[in-house]
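Our preliminary data section would be incomplete without showing what the modeling component actually yields. Below, a chain of 213 amino acids is followed by its predicted structure, encoded as tokens that our downstream tools consume directly.
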Amino acid sequence: MTENKTFIYESIFNQIRMGFHSIDEIQENITEEIEDNEFEDEISEEWAFDTIKEEYQKLLSESKQWKSPTDTERLINAFDELCDDNIVALHKAGYTTTDGEYEVVEVERELQENEIESDGYCFYHEQDLARAIAIENPSLYIAFQKVDNSDDAVTIEVGKRVAEVLINNDFKIKWDGSARTKIEIPGFKWQKIFNEDDRDLQDYSEVVDRMVQ
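Predicted structure:
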């Protein structure tokens, strides 16, 4: 496989395994990616669509062996508990830590419009998620902080609360207890298949509604 094909294959693999997009959406995304990178002469739409279909079938087959609750299901439950405990918890918040922080500030702004201030926040972003779908040594990193805060003691307190909820949901974690280090869930396996009837984990208005109620 050429370098360009490998690049597109990895994008297909990630989008299918993350489970946030339908097959139609992934086909549109990949077609756009091929065009944006000017790979049309090398990579045909037929190859791309066949690869999408193959990877989706592989995931469907694997999913029959998944044991419930999956790590993903337990993480969703943990994040719901954190929201109930007045900590903003966002799934797949942007592509980088900076993106995630932006998303959190937007949620915090909506909370303040409802006269609520969160005690802190946590999230993982798309690059974190890519590590959780890796075949070898999967893991997930969780960022945490409080909006407009520069006090390490406050940050650490948020980290402790996030860590406690994760542990209570049967996750083993690695964290040195500092304000500068993300919480790692080693061995975390992201297991999710897109289903249009499922809840949209990236609908952050649901987070606001949950925290306002």
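The CA atoms of residues 9 and 201 lie 25 Å apart. The helical segments are 3-18, 23-36, 45-63, 71-84, 97-113, 126-132, 152-168, 204-212. Preliminary results of this kind motivate Aim 1 of the renewal.
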